[in-house]
Design brief:
Radius of gyration of chain B: 19 Å
Structural class of chain B: alpha+beta
Order of helices and strands of chain A: EEHEEEHHHH
CATH superfamily of the largest domain in chain A: Beta-grasp domain
Oligomer: heterodimer
CATH topology of the largest domain in chain A: Ubiquitin-like (UB roll)
Number of strands of chain A: 5
Strand content of chain B: 25-35%
Strand order of the largest sheet of chain A: 2-1-5-3-4
Shape of chain B: globular
Largest sheet of chain A: 5 strands, mixed
Number of helices of chain B: 12
Shape of chain A: globular
Number of helices of chain A: 5
Strand content of chain A: 15-25%
Number of domains of chain B: 3
Helix content of chain A: 25-40%
Order of helices and strands of chain B: EHEHEEEHHHHHHEEEEEEEEEHHHH
CATH architecture of the largest domain in chain B: 2-Layer Sandwich
CATH architecture of the largest domain in chain A: Roll
Largest sheet of chain B: 5 strands, antiparallel
Largest interface: A-B, 30 and 32 residues
Radius of gyration of chain A: 16 Å
Helix content of chain B: 25-40%
CATH class of the largest domain in chain A: Alpha Beta
Chain lengths: ~160, ~290
């Protein structure tokens, strides 16, 4: 009972394996699936670095067991760019606005904003700041990140209409 | 920062979950996991078995029939947008704005918030305001626990190891009434240093009914009965209210820790209390 088989769709590909039941989703994605773009910071739900998208919702992958994501659709930072490798508007905007320095928080920032802006790209600065209030960045002071999010939001809104 | 090993069970019916609770030793119930998972990762808890209730669909319903009936597994995200909550318990949606972040509300549940019973958590404050009734089930019986008897001590609800919280029953106030919710935290979504919820009815300018709950300032969130008693029946005048609340505020046993002193909490609570009463009164007046 302390090990179980899990199978999930990660970025459109099937990933399966045997895991210890105590393994959280973040460790599973990094170690079993080899997707090391998901960063583990605090592992107690404070820093937001490990955010991934499970069945459409942004979640902290350190606060969900891998066995709980059995049969789920998971999107990680590796699944944000288009299949041909061209960048998502959020990734473009992060590059344009120098929205990262060390990059540790970036995967969680982008997955959070991806879920938030995909649901509704018409968001003002205050809403964007609130959306990333659960993602801690120790380098940038957030200005570049907010600028990038605003730029991406208007691009995503235009693309949608 | 990795959980210790445990056996994992994912029952799909309430009956199966209750059987497991009866048969397993040293169990933790995993709902949204937004408090339990950190405690597992930090090994503050090292259970033998974890019972994951996330697949029990009958626990995730919201309905209205005199009472608002909320299944314990209802996600905070669902509460934040649901039309029944919007219509009957708008203060709950106001309080939810202070609960964590959208990335934690997507998993976090109302039952989890009530059972974890953090001193600063908002949903117990709302349940307190309405004298909610909590339905808990074990394999042999189902019983109702009034919210005022729920908290026994710091993070300790009055629920037995073999019991599971299944439903929260809340009787909404009849119109017209006003509500206010005020909180202060160091960062948006962080634990409240102090928080106040208030429901209030005005009749010819007199406070005819009032309920106040406070969080973040003592070991458990609670009703602020001493304050309700001095305000009930008096004419509403915010300058008078500011004087009336001084006595009750002095009686609170404020948490005094390395980050925030008790006297600072008292000053904050006073300001938030005044604002929440003002907010509730202005809403009551605008009806």
């Amino acid at each position: 009972m302390q090990e179980q088989d899990v199978r999930m769709h990660v970025n459109g590909k099937q990933v399966s394996g045997k895991v210890e039941t105590r393994t959280h989703l973040g460790d599973f994605l990094r170690q079993a699936a080899g997707l090391t773009g998901t960063h583990l910071g605090c592992e107690h739900g404070v820093c937001g670095a490990c955010t991934v998208i499970v069945d459409g919702d942004a979640v902290r992958s350190c606060l969900m067991l891998a066995v709980q994501a059995d049969n789920c659709e998971v999107i990680t930072i590796e699944g944000i760019a288009k299949e041909d490798g061209s960048l998502h508007p959020l990734q473009e905007a992060f590059r344009n606005n120098h929205a990262l320095q060390c990059g540790f928080c970036t995967a969680g920032m982008i997955t959070s904003l991806y879920a938030f802006l995909t649901e509704n790209p018409e968001r003002n600065e205050e809403e964007i700041r609130e959306a990333i209030s659960g993602n801690i960045c120790r380098c940038t002071g957030y200005q570049g990140i907010v600028l990038a999010a605003k730029e991406a939001a208007s691009k995503m809104a235009k693309d949608r209409n | 920062m990795k959980a210790s090993a445990f056996s994992y069970h994912k029952p799909i019916s309430l009956e199966d979950a209750l059987s497991l609770l009866e048969s397993e030793e040293e169990v933790k119930i995993l709902a949204g996991g937004q408090s339990l998972m950190p405690m597992l990762n930090m090994r503050f808890v090292q259970p033998e078995a974890v019972i994951d209730v996330n697949e029990i669909e009958e626990l995730a319903t919201i309905s209205f029939n005199d009472n608002v009936e909320i299944g314990a597994l209802t996600r905070q995200k669902t509460l934040g947008t649901h039309s029944i909550i919007k219509q009957h318990l708008p203060i709950m949606q106001e309080a939810l704005k202070w609960v964590g972040h959208f990335q934690t509300q997507s998993r976090g549940t109302i039952g989890g918030s009530l059972c974890h019973l953090d001193p600063a958590s908002e949903l117990p404050m709302i349940a307190l305001l309405y004298d909610a009734e909590l339905e808990v089930a074990s394999k042999s019986a189902t019983r109702i626990i009034p919210m005022k008897e729920w908290a026994l001590a710091y993070m300790m609800p009055s629920i037995a190891p073999e019991e599971l919280l299944t439903k929260i029953l809340i009787k909404p106030w009849g119109m017209p009434y006003g509500y206010g919710f005020q909180e202060f935290a160091r960062r948006h979504g962080d634990f409240a240093i102090a928080a106040v919820g208030c429901l209030l009815k005005l009749q010819d300018g007199v406070i005819s009914e009032i309920a106040i709950s406070i969080g973040g300032v003592e070991d458990v969130p609670r009703r602020f009965i001493e304050c309700e008693d001095v305000l009930r029946g008096s004419k509403y005048d915010i300058e008078e209210v500011k004087k009336q609340i001084i006595g009750p505020l002095d009686q609170i046993n404020y948490i005094d820790d390395s980050l925030v002193t008790g006297s600072y909490r008292q000053k904050l609570l006073k300001g938030l209390l005044v604002r929440s009463i003002e907010q509730a009164a202005s809403r009551a007046n605008s009806l």
